[in-house]
Amino acid sequence: MEKTLLSFGHGYSARALAARLVPQGWTIFGTTRNEAKFAALEDEGITPVLWPDGDLSAAFETASHLLVSAGPDADGDPVLARFRDQIAEMAPRLEWAGYLSTTGVYGDHQGGWVDEATPLTPSTRRGQMRVDAEGDWRSVPGLPLHIFRLAGIYGPGRGPFEKVRQGTARRIVKPGQVFSRIHVEDIAQVLEASIDRPNPSAIYNLCDDDPAPPQDVIGHAAELLGLPMPPEVDFEAAEMSPMARSFYAESKRVSNARIKDELGVKLIYPDYRRGLEALLGAEL
């Protein structure tokens, strides 16, 4: 049976998944706000559709799978706001639906561990919007929904090397602060594993094995490049955007046991050291 994926918000993570599915013969419709991206998406085997006013009729008629990467805004989930009726109509015939959320829904745990059963206590407005969006998607009747809560994403084009090379990197230190992170290729392999083994209503944390202080990641990048160690800056004194500073309001270690136990996933990059080494190796 032909597999067709309708991908809303076909960006960084969705493109990594598509790179695995297209060679298997999948048809993929991907929405983008920028018509200038059409050629690149077409080169990747994607049928691009302009958001929000492009023609999605063929995608709604043929999709066997649904992926939503688009984030919520102040008005709620943008996909459901525009297409709830169409998605509810197609839901019973979908084999799988995935919603990409964030580990920000758990809020601050002062460095403690969280898993998928941890109560949702977001400490930021962004986190609360994600909690609300998860609930909105769960409310669609008959949708075979899987929720993926992503840690901080890195990968090709999204590493710390450029700032280190430019001399603008800083090791911002806030005592006790740790973040979980995930390489984009591991996001893609988890999504593919879930597609191959659907379990509607399942929730999965996507992160690696090594929650770590952010200054350690910057420091390791400098070591790999053979460049001077970026200076340490106290968090309270650091010049940061309000968005960047808000990330430091939460510190937690996120368990990834479920993706291993239920989906049989073996991480390609189980910690940031191996992930950064691979990124740098790919540049050489």
Quickly give the structural class: alpha/beta
Which term fits the overall shape? globular
- Rg on CA atoms, Å: 19 Å
CATH second-level architecture of the domain at 4-153 and 183-207 and 253-268: 3-Layer(aba) Sandwich
At CATH level 3, the topology of the domain at 4-153 and 183-207 and 253-268 is Rossmann fold
In percent terms, what proportion of residues is strand? 15-25%
Nearest-integer average pLDDT: 97
Kindly state the percentage of residues in helix.
Answer: 25-40%
Number of strands: 13
Fourth-tier CATH superfamily name of the domain at 4-153 and 183-207 and 253-268? NAD(P)-binding Rossmann-like Domain
Reported for the largest beta sheet, the result is:
7 strands, parallel
Adjacency order of strands in the biggest sheet: 3-2-1-4-5-7-11
Number of helices: 11
Beginning-to-end CA distance, first to last residue? 41 Å
| Helix and strand pattern | EHEHEHEHEEHEEHEEHEHEHEHH
CATH class assignment of the domain at 4-153 and 183-207 and 253-268: Alpha Beta
The low-confidence parts are none
Keywords: NAD
Protein name: Nucleoside-diphosphate-sugar epimerase
